[in-house]
Automatic annotation (TrEMBL), chain B:
Coiled coil: none annotated. SUPFAM superfamilies: Composite domain of metallo-dependent hydrolases, Metallo-dependent hydrolases. One of its GO terms (biological process) is pyrimidine nucleotide biosynthetic process. One of its GO terms (molecular function) is metal ion binding. One of its GO terms (cellular component) is cytoplasm. This is Dihydroorotase. Residues 345-425 form the Amidohydrolase domain. PANTHER family: ALLANTOINASE (PTHR43668).
Length: 331, 433
């Protein structure tokens, strides 16, 4: 990957990113809320954060004295630890809260928890919830910044940003590429955020899935829609695989895992249709042998671990952009 | 003998389809004379109301209203629903059986009749459950429920999935010549859908409800209605396909009717915006094409009635993530003004809109109201068609605040509502100033 100069090489205040105007958004709920220039700015900021994590001393003081609460109503290991590491590397006090919810009290817990946490005066809440729109609702109830770490099948904006950053790092550009998103589009927040972000950056987007996993109106969100995976992979620069929840392959939407793998699992034979320099991505956690052949997942075209690294950089950039500087500079 | 004369009115009577200037004489709660020439001979001591040219129409009959009494009085009582109705020009409403417990027993109908008599300013017409506990498994005692005062049968928000049971219910209801107002929706196709299926639901990441979840059971209902000869009322339809199905069935039978919610006539799926749960309705807001189709259905007479689908829900169950929030919006107080929006927009003429909320419901339910005729009960509303007002949830009379018209600027309002010759609502002087 391309190397960038350290973030504080130009003599800024420790950790402060120079050259960026105050960011205009207070929350990050949806990619749909971002203008193209804001997406590009977040990617530029994230690029400057990459070297921070590669240094011996991985800490900045941008968010020193700030409190970040990771509020996860849905279990998640990787996203939560990525946000935790991002916040800590910026010097914030990070508190993790996993809220176990029964279906009966789910919503009640959301509003009540919001009010309780708000009273503790956090500076930023990172929220994941199983219901679409829940993070937006919560953002209306609190006085701090809110970052959506995934709300139902709606959006997962930092995932789309880290995917875009990974593509940019490998391809040197984003515009003009052809990106295929494959798998359970109907239930995927990752797919929605990526379609919006890539669409805003003039990428040709393709979705590839069996018709039972394609949501209504998808042809208006993606440039092209394919049900034949080999056809859909022809000439693509990037393949994004999605996780298939096992419960989808129960005979209701998909008859079986083996049939799914036969037609929609990414293996060498299907991948041959893509460009020779194709990169393969996956938001994780992967189901090897369900949506992807282990040989591909761990092979030379895979950039899946790079995505994890870019995830930390993107989340550092988002936290840094949304929160006013601890040293008193405006947002 | 109490007497009341309303003079100088524009009398719009959808029963006779007449729109004339004149005066109406009310004696002992009944309309005793209508004079389109001058002033009827007012008895001595009669109260005289100068309508100043306002529209005098039959009081509205709302075919689909949910009340929280018994069981959820914090949402709505018969009294608060009555106040909201009166302020909206609604003089009778059919109360759905979805209470706790459900209205599936003669004693409960009797309770409602008495309780409404004692506390409600307007007439409450109980609909009794088609099936015990609204569970869709066993039919209720139609005969006894009819004797107790039920005006029709309905499973309210529930839809009977078994075609065999529905056939039995229709057949047995025909035996007592009672109308059945059934909501067609297929539970399996609805699944865990929470709004209209389409691009908009996809963008929001919400599960969609396909139109076929309504049209498939509606087609079944209509065929069973023709088979059994029941007086069938499709309680609430929302799609273009449903309008076609009802149109077709009406060519074969005059015992088939259909209703539409004011919400599906005036709002569409885009109003959901970003997860606005006051627009989350069990019969979801559909596309603009569907809205235009139901308007056309109303205009052409395929759709017979307009109702409010008044469904009070407290803030607690509405301030939730969209998929987890309860369905429903209140509407008794805004029904008339929202319907007049269709008139002001030139979508439907005044007579058709009023007829769908007065005379047609009365015909379907076999009521003597819904008309301005000698001998009819004096259930009347004086309407200023152009009165401008803005809906403020805090000023509405319902105990619940879940209006889909919050902040809406509407034109037209009930200035005075009369039930059985007695004024139950009059717009205050301050509001007029």
């Amino acid at each position: 990957m391309a190397q960038s100069s350290p973030a504080n090489a130009s003599g800024d205040l420790p950790g402060r990113l120079a050259g960026f105007p105050p960011f205009s958004q207070r929350h990050l709920i949806s990619i749909a809320d971002l203008a193209q220039h804001e997406i590009v700015e977040l990617l530029d900021r994230a690029e400057r954060m990459i070297p921070v994590s590669r240094q011996e001393r991985k800490s900045l003081s941008t968010l020193s004295g700030k409190t970040q609460i990771n509020l996860f109503f849905e279990p998640s290991t990787r996203t939560q630890s990525s946000f935790e590491i991002a916040g800590k590397r910026l010097g914030a006090l990070v508190v993790n809260m996993s809220v176990r919810t029964s279906s009966v009290t789910k919503g009640e817990t959301l509003i009540d928890t919001a009010a309780t946490l708000n009273a503790m005066r956090p500076d930023v809440l990172v929220v994941r919830h199983s219901a679409a729109g829940a993070v937006e609702l919560l953002s209306q109830k609190v006085g701090c910044s809110v970052i959506n770490a995934g709300d139902g099948a709606h959006e997962h904006p930092t995932q789309a940003l880290l995917d875009a950053l990974t593509i940019r790092q490998h391809k040197g550009r984003i515009a003009g590429l052809t990106v295929a998103i494959c798998g359970d589009i109907a239930n995927s927040r990752v797919a929605r955020s990526n379609l919006l972000l890539l669409g805003a950056l003039n990428v040709r987007t393709r979705v590839i899935a069996p018709k039972t996993l394609l949501p209504a109106g998808i042809e208006q969100l993606a440039t092209e829609v394919f049900t034949d995976m080999e056809e859909g992979l022809k000439g693509v620069d990037v393949v994004m695989m999605l996780r298939l929840q096992h419960e989808r392959a129960n005979g209701k939407m998909i008859p079986s895992v083996r049939e799914y793998y036969r037609f929609y699992g990414l293996d060498a034979a299907k991948l041959k249709n893509a460009k020779p320099d194709v990169i393969v991505m996956h938001p994780g956690p992967m189901n090897r042998g369900v949506e992807i052949d282990p040989a591909i997942a761990d092979g030379p075209r895979s950039v899946i671990t790079d995505q994890v690294e870019m995830g930390v950089a993107v989340r550092m950039a988002v936290l840094d952009a949304l929160l006013p500087d601890s040293n008193g500079a405006p947002r | 003998m109490s007497a009341l004369v309303i003079t100088n009115a524009r009398i719009v009577d959808p029963a006779s389809m007449t729109d004339t200037r004149g005066a109406v004489l009310v004696e002992d709660g009944l309309i005793s004379d209508i004079d389109t020439a001058g002033t009827p001979g007012a008895p001595q001591g009669a109260e005289i109301i100068d309508a100043r040219g306002l529209v005098l129409a039959p009081g509205l009959i709302d075919m689909r209203v949910f009340v929280g009494e018994p069981g959820k009085e914090y949402r709505e009582t018969l009294q608060s629903a009555g106040e909201a109705a009166a302020a909206g020009g609604v003089t009778s409403f059919v109360m759905m059986p979805d209470t706790t417990p459900a209205v599936d027993d003669g004693a409960l109908v009797d309770f409602l009749v008495r309780r409404a008599e004692a506390t409600s300013q307007v007439r409450v017409l109980p609909a009794a459950a088609i099936t015990k506990g609204l569970a869709g498994a066993e039919i209720t005692e139609f005969g006894l429920l009819q004797e107790a005062g039920a005006v029709c049968f309905s499973d309210g928000k529930q839809s009977i999935q078994s075609s065999a049971l529905l056939r039995a219910a229709f057949t047995y209801a025909a035996n007592f010549d009672m109308p059945v107002a059934h909501l067609p929706f297929d539970k399996g196709l609805t699944g865990d859908g929470v709004m209209n299926e389409g691009l908009f639901a996809t963008i929001l990441g919400l599960k969609g409800i396909p139109r076929e979840a309504e049209t498939i059971p509606l087609a079944r209902d209509l065929q069973l209605a023709l088979l059994t000869g029941v007086k069938y009322h499709a309680a609430q339809i929302s799609t273009a396909g449903s309008v076609s199905l009802v149109r077709e069935a009406k060519q074969k039978s005059n015992r088939v009717t259909a209703g539409v919610s004011i919400n599906n006539l005036t709002l569409n799926e885009n109003d959901v915006g970003r997860y606005r749960t006051y627009f989350k309705l069990a019969t979801p807001l559909r596309t603009e094409d569907d809205r235009l189709a139901v308007i056309e259905g109303l205009r052409s007479g395929v759709i017979d009635t307009i109702h409010s689908d008044h469904d009070p829900q407290d803030t607690e169950v509405k301030r939730q993530p969209f998929a987890e929030a309860s369905d429903g919006a209140i509407g008794l107080e805004t029904l008339l003004a929202a319907a007049l929006r269709l008139v002001h927009n030139g979508d439907v003429d005044l007579m058709t809109v009023l007829r769908a909320m007065t005379f047609r419901p009365a015909q379907i339910l076999g009521l003597p109201t819904g008309r301005i005729a000698r001998g009819a009960p004096a259930d009347l509303v004086l309407v200023d068609l152009d009165y401008p007002w803005q809906v403020k949830e805090t000023e509405l009379r319902s105990r619940s605040r879940n209006t889909a018209f919050e902040g809406a600027r509407l034109a037209g309002k009930a200035m005075r509502t009369i039930v059985g010759g007695k004024t139950v609502f009059e717009l205050s002087e301050e509001a007029l100033a």
